[in-house]
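Something for you to look into today, if you have time. Could you write out one complete protein record for me, on any chain you like? Leave the record below and I will have a look.
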Amino acid sequence: MGKMFSPDSKFMRAMSRLADLILLNVCFLVCSLPVVTIGAAQTALYTVLFRLGTEAEDAGTVKSYFRAFRADFKQGTLLWLILAFCGATAAANTYLFYLMPGDIRWAFVVFAILFVLMVLLFGYAFPLASQFANGPLSTLKNALVLSLGYLPRSVLIAAMNVLPWALLLGDIVTFFQAGLIWVGLYFSAAAYFNTLLLRKVFAPFLAQGTEE
């Protein structure tokens, strides 16, 4: 029993990681409240999560998050505004064309595909922005290439990102019943899961940056 509660035990390391994720989830939600800042909040979340368990991990989780939020604000916000505008436009046109009579309604398929692409881009754009100093357009281009190049992985990432909102639209009662999960843990835990999937994708490019 004593070993179980030792600071170096697997149990205590797991509890420490859980505490980090809870703190990060709260920070993310607070910084996302203005809505326009969601991109910066998401980028900062990935910045800290990619450092967890590495030599670059900072001692203070909250302090590290807000430091990253300030540093990533411009890049993350621009990415969010672009993706939000394009995604909302694609979603609206999908719905409108689907309701139209005649053959023109099949145009909704084109916009549905564009919407799916925006969802895939969302899963890569902010992690990329957290790790590489590129402009928004270069980041989006790289996000498109990687999301399509690693499609099975990309689908898992997209599913983690979309789950709460799909539940909100499909079963609002269950969504609110799971409210404590969303507020306490989900977004940081989903992003942490995504970082595990993305580490191998980013590894060759991070290694190139280190060599340079």
In short: Helices lie at 10-32, 38-51, 61-99, 108-131, 136-149, 151-170, 172-177, 179-211. The longest helix spans residues 61-99. Residues 76 and 136 are 8 Å apart (CA to CA). Residues 10-211 form one domain.
